[in-house]
């Protein structure tokens, strides 16, 4: 009976392996075009800033939970992000998405923390040297 159970498990494993590789392959196929060939979304350019190599301790050392004080969090966010504002404001690249993913990875901040706390008007945050 053990041999029968083992062979059934092996068969199930092989079947799932074949099936899952088929699903995996289809998941990675880019589905950015409709049947008629039109793009659903414009492809974003790669970010020229290498955010994966930046030092995030400027933010994580001063913006701490559980209260996440707005004054400290916003000031430190500006200290980090303002030098890259030209790239972060360019919606044709993926810089903002990448930067926020690393900030959240290292700081484990609640979703939308900086967007909800750090507002200085319609134009967004004012960086030194900007009009």
Automatic annotation (TrEMBL):
A Pfam family of this chain: LLG1
Signal sequence range: 1-20
Keyword field contains Cell division: no
Keywords recorded for this protein, A-Z: Signal
UniProt xrefs under InterPro entries: LLG1-like (IPR058888), LORELEI-like (IPR039307)
Domain (GPI-anchored protein LLG1-like) ranges: 49-126
Keyword Signal in record: yes
Protein name: GPI-anchored protein LLG1-like domain-containing protein
Organism: Brassica campestris (Field mustard)
